[in-house]
Write a structure and sequence with these properties.
Arc Repressor Mutant, subunit A, alpha/beta, 15 helices, 483 residues, eight-stranded mixed sheet, single chain, 3 domains, four-stranded antiparallel sheet, Aspartate Aminotransferase, domain 2, Aspartate Aminotransferase, domain 1
Amino acid sequence: MELPLPADEATGTKQERAYLAIRDAILNGLVQAGDRLPSTRTLGERWGIARGTLENVFERLQLEGYIVRQVGSGSRVSAVVPDSYLKAVTDSRAVRTTPSAETATPLLPPGAEHRAQVGVPFVARLANPHLIVPAEWALHLQRAMAGLKPEQMCSAEPQGALALREQIARYLRTHRGIDCHAEQILITNGIRHGIDLVARCVLKPGDQVCVEDPGYAAVHRIFEQAGAKLLHVPVDEEGLDLRDISNSTGCRLAYVTPAHQSPLGVIMSATRRLELLDWAQHRNAWIIEDDYDSEFNYHSAPLPALKSIDSMQRVVYCGSFNQALFSNLRLGYLLAPPELHLQILALWHTVGRSVGSSEQLGLAEFMRGPAFLRHLRRSRLEYQVLRDIVLDTLMAEAPGRYRISGEHAGFHLILWRLGDQEDGALIKGAEKLGLVLQPLRQLCYEIKLEPAFVLGFAALTRAQAKRAARQLGRLLRGGSEML
């Protein structure tokens, strides 16, 4: 089987050219599902590429679902390419036209080019799906379904399955310092779903919402769609700084990520937490605490949640299992003060409950025994290893060309550029290598910060993390070798 290697150096590094050669051969029908590919040794000799480089190529192709690799039987094509796709490829080659101004740029949602993705450095800031053990997860789902009563199949509990709410309450009491009970918890599809419910209940058109700057744009859009006006409050090394808006009288809500600020990664200090609670109490405002990744702190136990010191009953606490387990689980929870809880529950009834009982009961079973905490420990260790690979490799490749912050927890860190290179040049250079760099400035509104990038690392393999960090380090120091 002859696979041609693109000769045009403009297509990128040898590794990228090898990847494109194999991928395009599959997409163009040159090799089909079930066909065996030449070994990395054979291709290395034919193309003059190091075998280790080709191993990275094959690993990427397997991760993307193009091939499967098995010891003893080599690598085979697994992707089935529909005839309609092959016809579309042929037609596009036959008719080459220059796109008009109206069709040249596809309509994408804001930030789509930097959405979190598995295996893509450096937007891999989501739970690594390879860390969940499918057989273990399936076993707990099976146990839950085996004990499912007929009435549970057709009559859902309004707030969510009691079994799951009990496990969540137990977890929050033990690990987040929140004194709560099952009847106070509402099951949601995730944190953004919970925030949307709160916004609908609390906000009227023209109300002001205090948000972090820099901050999480997807949540900001939820508030804007509710008709609110955003007050962008700067974040410093202690977290949200309310001094500039302390006298604002029209603010009904504040949204914060105190455990690991998104995106800077700073921890809100105890002083700032108390100031925020006092601010909310005096203005009869609410606080949404987004506790999106508090499970993954690599230096010490995280501070207790803001909700744990909410003696004034002003904090709505939102959590999710999409970071703890896997991103498409779509299970979260909301803990609101009594006054707000009933309003949210009534709205939840109106718009419809869309979290399946089987998933809820399966997760409850998973949390009941040691499996959940064991998974968290395993994941925390792996994410710390991935983080350390990135940090150690960057230090070896580009000392003095950057500084790091926000690395103590979570799925991403911030790299502050110290060199004289422009962001645009680094972004384009990274793109040629298959790296995606998101500038911090895209998440800033009124605040002005030094040049920096958000680096997500959690959903990478160790080999991917090392290779990507090496390439980024060489870009930072202005090196020409990218393999």
